[in-house]
Design brief:
By secondary structure, the protein is an alpha+beta fold. It contains seven helices and nine strands, in the order H-H-H-H-H-E-E-H-E-H-E-E-E-E-E-E.
């Protein structure tokens, strides 16, 4: 299957990348075989093609482009995991306690998700639907505060705080919700893409 026939789609690609100077356009056309590999990989990892291509074509050589496309091939997640910003996320369909959820994630070479950026929260909230999911946030009594499982401090707001609600879920609402660690919920694992 040919991704870029000689005319037509080549022009569409160049136009979609907003290429305005002749030198960059010439380099794009010259390295179309490498671009095919990059575009295939962009589809696999759900990254915008234009960001990578424009970065690579400003001052690159064919060796750089080829080695970069090899790098992109390796940036993938296991089956049934979602890729976001170089991290893989697994959203369970069954329910376990917080400790059993953590054990599951560790057995998969991951941890419960550390949802410490608005972009990551939005990405996961878009996938949770009407379910609640445990994440890697716990109330530490000795420190009297909320901490991620990597021991970094949580700087946000946890709602629904009650006695013995020492774990946190996301989903269903757009907030971090305190929950009992012993009640079964779905969970989200996170690990670096390989």
């Amino acid at each position: 299957m040919e991704f870029f026939p000689q005319r037509g789609q080549k022009d569409l690609l160049i136009q979609s990348l907003h290429v305005t100077d002749r030198e960059t356009e010439t380099r794009l056309v010259k390295f179309l075989p490498g671009l095919r590999m990059i575009c295939i990989n962009m589809i696999v990892i759900n990254r915008p093609v234009s960001h990578y291509l424009m970065t690579q074509f400003q001052d690159s050589h064919s060796e750089t482009l080829i080695s970069y496309s090899v790098f992109l091939i390796s940036l993938v997640c296991p089956r049934e995991w979602d890729l976001h910003e170089g991290r893989c996320f697994f959203l369970s369909t069954s329910e376990l306690s917080w400790n059993k959820s953590r054990e599951f994630c560790e057995a998969e070479g991951s941890s419960l998700a550390i949802v410490n950026t608005p972009a990551k929260l939005e990405f996961l909230q878009d996938r949770t639907g009407a379910e609640k999911y445990f994440i890697g946030l716990l109330y530490q009594h000795a420190e009297e505060g909320w901490y991620w499982i990597d021991n970094s401090m949580f700087n946000g707001n946890v709602v629904n705080q009650r006695l013995h609600f020492n774990c946190v879920t996301i989903g269903l609402t757009k907030t971090y919700d305190a929950a009992s660690c012993d009640v079964n919920y779905r969970w989200i694992c996170e690990k670096r893409a390989t």
